[in-house]
Amino acid sequence: MTSTIEAPRSPYSRGPRSRGVNWEKWGWIYMRVSGVVLVVLIFGHLFVNLMVGEGVSALNFAFVAGKLTTPFWMVWDVLMLWLALIHGGNGMRTLVNDYATQRLTRGILKSAILAAVVILIVLGTLVVFTFDPCPAGSPADLLPSFCSAI
Asked: Which of 36, 133, 136, 139 could form a disulfide with 65 if both were Cys (CB 3.0 to 4.6 A apart)?
């Protein structure tokens, strides 16, 4: 009778490959891609707001209201908002996974992060798309020039 002796299994070897989506891999890829896109969006935002035109001295309600009436800048700002919040939320989720030792604590913290990200995305998107550049009763010198025509 021949008996085979199996070597002990290493704790570092991978187990059988699981089926389904590898969410950690996609989270890792998202962090890299969104980080690069965010750098472009943020530096573009800073360049337009601080360098073009009159620079910092031009930043007032009229400047922001004028930008938020243009669909290009609305999409730019919403894209920056969404990417930054999801990027930050995913980073916080990673920290919770690394440092929270109890399963219940991890679940509560990740639920709180998800709720905060969703609420801020909804509120921020609503602000950008429902912004009124010509509020009633505002001083005319603080409003964009196109408001006087209304």
From this structure: 133
Q: How far apart are the C-alpha atoms of 52 and 87, rounded to whole Å?
A: 28
pTM, to two decimals:
0.77
Both structure tokens of 53: 């035109």
- Cα separation of 39 and 129, whole Å? 23
Tell me the per-residue pLDDT of 43-60, one tens digit each, with 9 for 90 and over.
999 998 888 877 777 788
Determine the Cα–Cα distance for residues 9 and 40; give it in Å rounded to an integer: 47
Indicate the length of the chain as a whole number: 150
- pLDDT at 30 (0 to 100): 93
CB contact at 8 A, 114 and 49: no
Q: Which two tokens stand for residue 146?
A: 């196109």
Q: Using an 8 Å Cβ cutoff, are 143 and 61 in contact?
A: yes
What separation in angstroms does the CA of 89 have from each of 72, 93, 140, 145? Answer: 26, 6, 40, 39
Asked if residues 41 and 80 have their Cβ atoms less than 8 Å apart, the reply is yes
DSSP 38: H
State mean pLDDT over 90-118. 95
Helix, strand, coil % (nearest 5) of the chain? Answer: 70, 0, 30
